[in-house]
Write a structure and sequence with these properties.
By secondary structure, the protein is α/β, with parallel strands linked by helices. The chain is built from 9 helices and 10 strands. It has a 6-stranded mixed beta sheet with strand order 6-7-8-3-9-10, sandwiched between helices. The chain has a 4-stranded antiparallel beta sheet with strand order 2-1-4-5, covered by helices on one side. Magnesium ion binds next to helix 1.
């Protein structure tokens, strides 16, 4: 049984379908990519999966259990955690306090400081722990956002464009982090525009275009799929 499954998810804004019967599976221990041009519906699918938006039709299942009607807090307690495309850090708090605030809500809350420090160390952020979040370059701020998701010890981790604003070296380190999270058994669902990152870290890639899954498969196949090329070339 897959850890996370979206089945036939449809979302409409006014008359327009942002998602039209979208199904997707994310397995424990794997990095699953979700790519597609701007406006394809990637962030909307994250909203549905994380419980911020109810789909018009369709289901979200975690371990086979139907969680479609559960809110985001309930899903977080079940082990789902996400980051946002638009960063949602507390700008005046330090890097460490941003993680602490989140850690105090999670399963490691009784040892929140230790939980936060362990994640800072894993992300290579210990030296920046006392810096205010709003003074960070975007690439580092993205890592802090990932850290806030990680202190919740997620089984399912949803990352919405986490490498946007990272330089080449940061992206390389980030790729290694994603692989190590998968090796720990986490189901990672990655929305990302950096194709070399997607193709190097993902086990499987879904391609969304105008609310439809137009392709899905291992990176090597997706890279030469004509429907995928058409979706991207269409955008350019
Ligand atoms: P992506 O993340 O792939 O760029 P989104 O999920 O953000 O795409 O958006 C998918 C479509 O839904 C776009 O056409 C977008 O304009 C529309 N959309 C997203 N959120 C809303 C909203 N709150 N109200 C109306 N339309 C929206
Ligand atoms: Mg988006």
């Amino acid at each position: 049984m897959p850890l996370l499954r979206a089945e036939g998810v449809t979302v409409a804004f006014g008359g327009r379908r942002a998602l039209d019967s979208v199904s997707l599976t994310a397995e424990a221990g794997r990095v699953t990519g979700l790519i597609g041009p701007n406006g394809a519906g990637k962030s909307t699918l994250f909203d549905v999966v994380s419980g911020l938006r109810r789909p018009r039709t369709g289901r979200v299942r975690l371990d086979g259990r139907d969680i479609t009607r559960e809110g985001p807090a309930r899903r977080a307690r079940r082990g789902m955690s996400r980051t946002f495309q638009h960063l949602e850090l507390f700008g005046r708090l330090s890097v460490r306090d941003n993680l602490l605030v989140a850690a105090e809500l999670g399963p490691g809350r009784r040892h929140a400081a230790r939980t936060a420090d362990a994640v800072l160390d894993r992300l290579g952020l210990t030296a920046l722990a006392e810096d205010p979040a709003d003074a960070l370059p975007t690439g580092v701020a993205r890592l802090v956002e990932v850290g806030r998701a990680l202190v919740l010890r997620p089984r399912v981790l949803l990352l919405d464009e986490p490498a946007a604003g990272q330089d080449a070296e940061e992206t390389e380190r980030f790729a290694a982090l994603l692989r190590s999270l998968a090796a720990d058994g986490t189901a990672v669902l990655l929305v990302e525009h950096d194709m070399s990152l997607v193709m190097s870290v993902c086990d499987e890639v879904y391609v969304l275009d105008l609310g439809h899954v137009v392709a899905c498969g291992p990176p090597a196949l997706i890279q030469r799929d004509e429907t995928v090329l058409a979706a991207y070339l269409g955008e350019a």
